[in-house]
Write a structure and sequence with these properties.
The chain has six helices and 19 strands. With about 300 residues, it is of the alpha/beta class.
């Protein structure tokens, strides 16, 4: 692509599409590379009930289709492609895509998201949205009076387990060691909750649906004895962490020790002038569609003002 864009957006979750909507309405003619999973993590979420404006809920994929439709309505050009190399050492920046197209752009909005870490079990991905989840806040409501299992031993796992007790009748916390890694206060909350039972020295080694199309049971394996057992379960929540999709920017942008892009406090700007980050690639705390969309809006407004400052 020979022309120099005003802004290029990498990623197509709520952050990327919201940035595109705002940038397009500001006449910045944004181009968006949708990535390997167009629509982001919401495309593997069954029903979204906590996003304002949808009082009866909406299916995740349908919601992201609406985001995309709104972005393109205002003139965003969307490519179902992914950036594989970048040069941020000089402006205009260049991004080369997997199909070999090189984009030159005055500004860059990174909204590549994050991916939940999974156990790597054969049925795990097939049962996403059918009892397997990596977000209790998103999906806990669907497990009212159900028996669920949470995998993990850190703060996130304890927090997810506690949250799920608002809905589930019983929450088992599966910990592969004899101790939790969580902070003292989070441990105390989990261990004192009468609805939570900790299963020490256990791994989930299979998730089963018994041809019903949803989680019906789990296989647990004792980490020391190797003993296996099948336990009934309505849901499996994974809380072993998220990995931000930021490998492309390692050594170029300032990141924290987990790879999340650091932005100026209260803003979307990164350490490279003209480069902005939004959504889960820079947010390890909230990780919600609504907050991602908010930072996408911030990034687009900052891009508009940054360009005004460059061109007067």
């Amino acid at each position: 692509m020979s022309e120099t864009l005003k802004t290029l957006i990498l990623g197509s979750g709520p952050a990327g599409y919201t940035a595109a909507i705002y940038a397009a309405r500001a006449n910045l003619a944004p181009v968006l590379l949708a990535g390997r999973q167009p629509g982001g993590q919401l495309t593997i979420t069954s029903e979204v009930e906590n996003y304002p404006g949808f009082p009866h809920g909406i299916m995740g994929p349908e919601m992201m289709d609406k985001f995309r439709e709104q972005a393109t309505r205002f003139g965003t050009v969307v490519h179902d492609d992914i950036g594989v190399s970048v040069d941020l050492s000089k402006r205009p920046f260049t991004v080369t895509s997997e199909t070999g197209t090189t984009f030159r752009t005055e500004t860059l909005i990174i909204s590549t998201g994050a991916s939940a870490l999974y156990l790597g079990l054969p049925n795990e991905k097939a049962l996403q949205g059918r009892g397997v989840s990596a977000c209790a806040t998103c999906d806990g409501f669907f497990f009212k009076n159900k028996v669920v299992y949470v995998v993990g031993g850190g703060d996130s796992a304890c927090e997810e387990a506690n949250f799920l007790t608002k809905y589930a009748s019983k929450v088992f916390l599966v910990v592969r060691r004899e101790a939790l890694r969580a902070s003292k206060i989070m441990q105390d909350r989990a261990l004192r909750n009468p609805k939570i039972e900790v299963l020490w020295n256990q791994n989930v080694t299979d998730v089963l649906d018994v041809s019903k199309g949803k989680v019906t049971s789990l296989e647990l394996t004792h980490t020391k004895t190797g003993e296996k057992k099948i336990v009934p379960a309505d849901g499996l929540f994974l809380a072993i962490g998220h990995k931000p999709n930021t490998e492309l920017f390692q050594g170029v942008l300032t990141m924290d020790d987990k790879g999340y892009i650091k932005t100026v406090p209260g803003k979307a700007a990164t350490n490279v002038d003209g480069v902005f980050a939004a959504g889960d690639c820079q947010d390890s705390y909230y990780r919600q569609a609504i907050t991602a969309a908010g930072t996408g809006c911030m990034a687009a407004i900052e891009v508009e003002r940054w360009l005004e400052g460059q061109h007067g």
